[in-house]
Amino acid sequence: MKRTNLAVFISGRGSNLKAIIDAIERGYLDRVDLKVVVSNKGGAMGIEHAKNAGIPYHIIERGDMTKEEHDEKVMQAIEEYGINLICLAGYMQVLQTKFVRRYRWGMMNIHPSLLPAFGGGIHAQRDALEYGAKISGCTVHFIDEGIDTGPIIIQAAVPVKDSDTEETLAARILEHEHIIYPKAIKLFSEGRLKIEGRKVKVEGEVKAGAIEDARYHMKRIGVSKEAVDGLSKKAGGYSILVENVMPREAMVLKQEMLSRGGDCAVPKDCILNNLVFTDVILLGSSKQFKDLAVSLKKQAFDLPKAGAAIERVIR
Known about the structure:
It is a single chain. The chain has helices at 15-25, 47-53, 67-78, 97-102, 124-131, 166-189, 214-221, 225-232, 247-259, 269-272, 286-296, 303-314, and strands at residues 4-10, 32-39, 57-59, 85-88, 107-111, 135-142, 152-159, 193-196, 199-202, 207-210, 238-245, 263-265, 278-284. By secondary structure, the chain is an alpha/beta fold. The radius of gyration is 21 Å and the shape is globular. The mean pLDDT is 94. The longest helix has 24 residues, at 166-189.
């Protein structure tokens, strides 16, 4: 499978850009090359992230240009990089029809609400609070000719507290953005996103495989540093990476391993986002894994598939 040549467009501080760079550096986005960063604002703080990572960048301010003329300048600037995915990360300009059609289904955006609610504006958190919404969140979606109307890839839900201000709600939503945007990019890079009408289906079978460097893989899939430090001490015996399970299944795997005296490394997104596939790392002995496989085959969801995959690893 060919690698994904990524361009990220920004206008401001670029915190999602930094999350993407971090995900590439830790090996999570192992099929992605961030080729170029584009800003339409000369003073965008996010450019520093590109500089620090040694990534080429272009500052293309609109000035007196029409939107169409500006889009043309941007397309010319990124042409040499062979881009097949563009991610808007706080890019405060609507791309016009020609641009959208040129990169159709190869552009993503992240919006701080659960679309289609509170789309099309720049004050989604304020709108959610004023409306009295009990749950907000964020959405990664493909870009079409509308504003925040493209097919939805991933969403993460964030409860709204009675004490929330626009700033506190935005801060909690941003934590989720930094998790689900790299995940959406990863799914794209693995060819697992299939668009059927308005729906985006995520493809992927449950897989399991033995790994040698458990600490590296724990960092790669997004396990917290504290958990990595603690679990690395237990990484004797077998270490098995289980891929493409839902968070509810990941938590069952963790409970099952703990009940047998083993352990399980669960990425942060298992806690923060329950709407997309995740990976886990199981740590234990051969006997613990054999018992686990037998138990999983009797359970619901895709756990029997996980049990069969684990059984194949330890034979």
